[in-house]
Every structure is written in structure tokens, then in C-alpha cells.
Amino acid sequence: MPRYLIERDLAGAGQLSDDELRGISTKSCQVLHDLGPDIQWVQSYVTDDKIYCVYIAANERLIREHAKRGGFPCNRVSEVRAGIDPTTAELKM
Q1: pLDDT tens string 8-33
Q2: pLDDT > 70 fraction of the chain, expressed in percent and rounded
Q3: What are phi and psi for residue 14, nearest 5 degrees?
Q4: pLDDT category, 91, cuts 50, 70, 90?
Q5: Quick one: which of 10, 48, 53, 57 could link to 44 by a disulfide (CB 3.0–4.6 Å)?
Q6: pLDDT of res. 80
Q7: H-helix or E-strand spanning residue 63
Q8: What phi, psi does 44 have (nearest 5°)?
Q9: Helix, strand or coil, per DSSP, at residue 92
Q10: What is the rounded CA–CA span in Å between residue 39 and residue 66?
């Protein structure tokens, strides 16, 4: 299934408490359960005013439906086309 990067604008995201982050996570997991096996949350990164999330999903529509049902912002959804890391630079023989 395709992998997606979701950009969520959320002013003050970096100031959210552990309890607030736990609440967001709990709500997200509840919605994911309701949506079924064609969508999976991989990880999220919280910055000062945004949350960046990585999801695996059958399509972008499921990503947007998750955000709608959860009450989460969903400002940009981008399908990941490739991944690189330090090992990409290694010479393969």
C-alpha cells in the first residue's frame, strides 16, 4: 500500500502536554479501528506549529476521512515516492 506524509497545521503543537498528545493519539487509534485495515498510522513528529504524520493507506481518501472523523487538521497529503537514508549512499557491489 502507498505511504503518505500528512502535514497538519496546529498552532502551539509543540506546547501540547503529554495528556493532550495521549488524547490525540487515542482518538486517532479509535478512528483507525473504525476505518478498518486499509489505513495504518506509522509515526508522527510534533514541531512548534505543525504535526507531520506518516501513514500507510490504500488511498488519499482514507487519509482525509480519518482527519475528518477525528477532527484533525489535514492541510497537505503527499504520497511518498521513495525513501533515502545514509545507507543509500553506500556503494553496492
Answers
A1: 999 999 999 999 999 999 999 999 99
A2: 99
A3: -70, -15
A4: confident
A5: 53
A6: 98
A7: helix 60-70
A8: -135, 155
A9: coil
A10: 9
- At 59, list the grid cell: 488511498
- Residue 53 backbone dihedrals phi, psi, to 5 degrees: -120, 145
The CB density around residue 65, as the number of other CB atoms within 10 Å, is 17
Q: Residue 45 burial (CB < 10 Å; 0-12/13-18/19+)?
A: exposed
* Placement of cell 504524520 in the chain: 53
Alpha carbon 60 to chain centroid distance?
A: 12
Give pLDDT tens digits for 66-84. 999 999 999 999 999 999 9
Q: Are 3 and 80 in contact (CB under 8 A)?
A: yes
Task: List the 50-57 sheet strands across, edge first.
Answer: 39-46, 50-57, 3-9, 76-79
DSSP string, 21-35: HHHHHHHHHHHHHHH
